[in-house]
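Internal QA ticket QA-208
Title: Verify multi-chain structure generation after dependency bump
Assignee: T.L.

Test input:
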Amino acid sequence: MTDLTKLSLADARKGLTDKSFTALELTDAYIAAIDKANDALNAYVATTPEQAREMAKASDAKLAQGQGGPLEGIPLGIKDLFATKGVHTQAASHILDGFKPEYESTVTANLWRDGAVMLGKLNMDEFAMGSSNETSYYGPVISPFRAEGSNANLVPGGSSGGSAAAVAAWLCAGATATDTGGSIRQPAAFTGTVGIKPTYGRCSRWGTVAFASSLDQAGPIARTVEDAAILMTSMSGFDSKDSTSVDLAVPDFAAAVERGVKGLTIGVPREYRMDGMPAEIEKLWQQGLEWLKAEGATVKDISLPHTKYALPAYYIVAPAEASSNLARYDGVKYGLRVSGKDITDMYELTRAAGFGREVKRRIMIGTYVLSAGYFDAYYVKAQKVRSLIKKDFEDAFGSGVDAILTPATPSAAFGIGDEALAADPVAMYLNDIFTVTVNMAGLPGIAVPAGKDGKGLPLGLQLIGRPFDEETLFAAARVIEKSAGGDFAPKQWW
Amino acid sequence: MSVDATTVKRIGRLARIRIEEDEVTGYQQELNAILGFVEQLNEVNVEGVEPMTSVTPMTLRRREDIVTDGGYAEKIVKNAPLSEDNFFMVPKVVE
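Actual output:
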């Protein structure tokens, strides 16, 4: 039998309905692949093989009767940020030690409703704060990619590094992820996978550990555009338990994938042409535009004048919201408790021991910018800048642009333990320079593999769409995927 | 704006995160690097601009003011480090 783990999600689905193989066989193939790879890649922080086999057997029973949901029998990995009933849910943090929720997040509940099988929980940057998956309490995820002629370990990006690595290394058919400033799109770009952050409000945030509530959105990482579209359809939908969930019909996103880009206008924002941008990124961007033109799209130069202020505004808004959201970890309700001489002492010692350095740094910044006397100068100012960033996009879309093409990241994946990045927090933050504007404006954005750098490492392009027009993004991303025609699979070394 | 060592300790207290003496300088440098980075927002003219309150135009939904959930205290305290009779246990806070 062919290696079942190498099938796309869409092909696996076909094989299951054709009865070429069973959900249990498919699940066992993934469990074996995880057992073999996880010591090397550290993509999973918890595996649930028994639960997976039970779910697969239930799917086989349904498939045998010609029934089953759109994801029936498809094995998925779940980012550790999603609450999964009775299963390890710690946001890859020490402070949530032992936490096993009594409830299921809406996004994962939607996936199980549609028949998916859970393989386990995926590693990530602690509380989704990071761009390299090195801030996890469970240690860094190692990218399945290596530069040509090198054995050095690379990062898979972050914060959804476990999701991206597991998908690229065939350790699940697809994965859930979340994106607050680029945490789906940047790791997808680093690992030759497809990742989409939908419009804010498309996916329920209920049961997803909160980082920055006005920016957080869930989305899938998958090996193809079609796979991402299939997962997006199941994950989306109105939820009365999330007050910012949007009551809007969910399209069949997969039906839009082959729609093409004929007649569409693609915007090219001049402010994304950053100083010192590597020539290969610039070249990739031009190539992407040529591909879209060849399929009938028109390219139009646009201006998003407040682009450079998105990242500094983000580093006020996101830490402010995080400092508020993470106040709940106090050693009382769940997770770690370090005893002290009184209750304040207990809080302080628990939080000092339970949070990692990056998380503490962001809580500190957030606490400072929200503190008396600084609130207007920092937070209110940043929210005003955010209004301007959103208006930039509204003006562009108002001028007839259907989608915007940009690079996904300023470079390919970098090494584990990069000293220059470790010494300067701001240098690491610059990874999100092309993605963070999208979160600030609440728009959908997709990263799609489009080429490779000089060392054979994948590079991605990003498409940004109008609110709730993910369909155009899937269609345009599919054109890039098809035109690139490349093999973005890693060479297996693990 | 930049923070001094006293401010770092004060933020630590506000955030309920114990900052040890030997950590103060490190945090001070990191926080000042970030505050220096966000300084560039001063270049932006925001006169007459409304601060964003919702990224998508929406009004919060309302519902009847009735109990719709609850009645499972044992589940709520299930993950607590210390609990008794469905109460969270903490060190004594009132003398």
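Spot checks passed. The first strand of chain A starts at residue 44 and ends at 47.
Status: verified.
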